[in-house]
Amino acid sequence: MKRKLMSFCAFAVLLAGCAATEPAAEQPLTKEQAQAELWPMELAIYSARGKGSLDPYINATADDYAAWPPGFPAPTNADDLRSAKDAMSKLTEEELEMEFVSLVLEGDTAVIYYKTHRTRRPDGTEVDERFNVTHTWVKRGEDWKILGGMARPVPQ
User: Fold this and answer.
1) What is the 3-state secondary structure (H, E, C) of 108-131?
2) Shortest CA distance to 100 belongs to which of 33, 30, 35?
3) Contact present, 138 and 60 (Cβ < 8 Å)
4) How far is 135 from 130, CA to CA, in rounded Å?
5) φ, ψ of residue 155 in degrees (nearest 5)
6) Which of 18, 31, 105, 108 could lock 139 by a disulfide, CB 3.0 to 4.6 Å apart?
């Protein structure tokens, strides 16, 4: 009896030790966490764009990225975005304000909705243009990647 009790105790200690070394279950991402991570990334993309840099945008795009900018006849892809990098470096006068609207989240995929109000185009032309914008983001490990997006002008 004593032997069985000692065997049981040893087994229990071993089991407890194994359970303690297992990684904790990852908590699902909340909408608030996704917004706290993604909104600064969106702001950084436009801030850099106003200085003639597409780097934050390019660095955040997924391999199979596609987006439909206003005025374009069809969606563009990651190669198109990379090709525009040099030309954009000379366009440093864009000014716009951004307003967060909403975010939806399903698993590791988020769609963020926001509005922009552009008062100066990248070439310096003064304008009063407003756009509704979406980006679809996918979380891969610790990194978020933009899978797609669409922007449309708001009629005035």
Assistant:
1) CEEEEEEEEEEEECCCCCEEEEEE
2) 35
3) no
4) 16
5) -60, 140
6) 108
